[in-house]
Amino acid sequence: MKFIIISDSHGNKEGIDKIFKEMQFDGLIFLGDGVKDLSSYMNYNNVYCVSGNCDFFSSIPNERELKIFGKKVFITHGNKYNVKSTLNYLKELCLKENYDIILFGHTHKKEVIQYNNSYIVNPGSFRGKADGKSSGLIMYIGENSIKFDSFEI
Fold this sequence. Notes:
Elements: E1 2-6, H1 13-22, E2 27-30, E3 47-49, E4 63-68, E5 71-76, H2 88-97, E6 101-103, E7 110-115, E8 118-123, E9 135-141, E10 146-152
Parallel strand pairs: 1-2, 2-3, 5-6, 6-8
Antiparallel strand pairs: 1-9, 4-5, 7-8, 9-10
């Protein structure tokens, strides 16, 4: 299965529209700070999102647990876990709750960290760059495999 993972779009609705027009995927996971940018797609059954600290007055929860292809996945914006200073809280959560994957945003820094037998992953910021391109991650998940690749659109 192929999942698009993005976060922190901060008004980049055009970039999100491009994903839905130009990319093929089984699901899209949005990790907060720009939930309004997804307003046209919120009712799709393959869109999963959480709100972030800049999603004022949003009724969308700021964390969520998913089951994807038998894997236990936790998605959060990350601000409540102090991710700009440390990933220790996410690491503790990973061990305590036995998550296979934790996806978070907030720092605008793309990173894929393998921790024990799990992954702690941030797709970076999806807010457009000066060249008009936006980036995120693609997560390929199968019965016995998890792989992450960057994409730019």
